[in-house]
Amino acid sequence: MTRIEVDHRVRHPEKAHRPDNPIQRKPAWIRVKAPTSPIYHQTHALMRENGLTTVCEEAACPNIGECWSQRHATMMIMGETCTRACSFCNVATGMPRALEADEPERVADAVAKLGLRHVVITSVDRDDLKDGGAEHFARTIRAIREAAPTTTIEVLTPDFLRKDGALEVVAEARPDVFNHNLETVPRLYPTIRPGARYYQSLRLLDRVKQLDPTIFTKSGLMVGLGEERPEVGQVMDDLRMAEVDFLTIGQYLQPTVKHAAVARFWEPEAFEELAGMARAKGFLLVSATPLTRSSYHADADFAALKAARLARQ
């Protein structure tokens, strides 16, 4: 038994009842090289030094080598245990620990030490908290503004389902980008994202624009879970109705045999077609490739978002 197999059995006890889905061999356009850069190891050391969690590690992102070698990292606040058990996600599920009061300052310190131009802050779902962790997000934004005033901030939040007023708390802290991923088409929510509600996520993104039209909004989709192209097009239309500015689309990769199976590996040419469809629908920016992830190249994308907005004015 390998170390990785042991790790997954500990991380996903709630998925043990699911039938095994053998992991398919990835096509050539999906494979990435193992990280070897000295800067990658320096970034890793800084995360450990500050006791921080990153979604890059917890979600087993295939781009970690490239991003960390460029000192890009997505900080995951509020612990590494999620209160939900989505069938696509590699983050552990269970009862989370209490929030760490000094975490916002530790995150801000790491952002300053890394010299980040742009930072992405995300979290696990914290359905156990009265506000879903909204105030912790707001405190983290404020701490980064204090420690690294020139750094732009993107948040990738939970849906704050049944947490009245939570979204308003985060929006009031005025992140530069508010991201919330729809993940998949509504037909697949019962099996892929059972703890969430598609229209709740749409309303969340729409409400951000109502509260502060200057905040860029962003959402992401995975393909390869069994969705059909017309369904993806409908999600694009729904997001544009909510005035979402930026759409990311990437290939779903199955983390373990206990997760949802890959129904299809979309070819690079198919992603180009999806990107063209999304641009035609009016998104300010679109990133659609097999390896696109929600915060992949987030700093360059933020600059492109600003330029696109200016071009339309």
Structure description:
It is globular and about 45 Å long. The chain has 313 residues and is of the alpha/beta class. Helix 7 packs parallel to helix 9. The chain has helices at residues 3-11, 38-49, 55-58, 64-69, 103-114, 134-147, 166-172, 189-192, 198-211, 229-241, 268-280, 298-312, and strands at residues 53-54, 74-77, 81-82, 92-93, 118-123, 152-156, 177-179, 216-223, 246-251, 285-288. Helix content is 39%, strand content 13%. It starts with a helix and ends with a helix. It has an eight-stranded mixed β-sheet, sandwiched between helices. A two-stranded parallel sheet has the order 3-4.
Which features does this protein show?
313 residues; alpha/beta; TIM Barrel; eight-stranded mixed β-sheet; two-stranded parallel sheet; 39% helix; 13% strand; globular; disordered N terminus
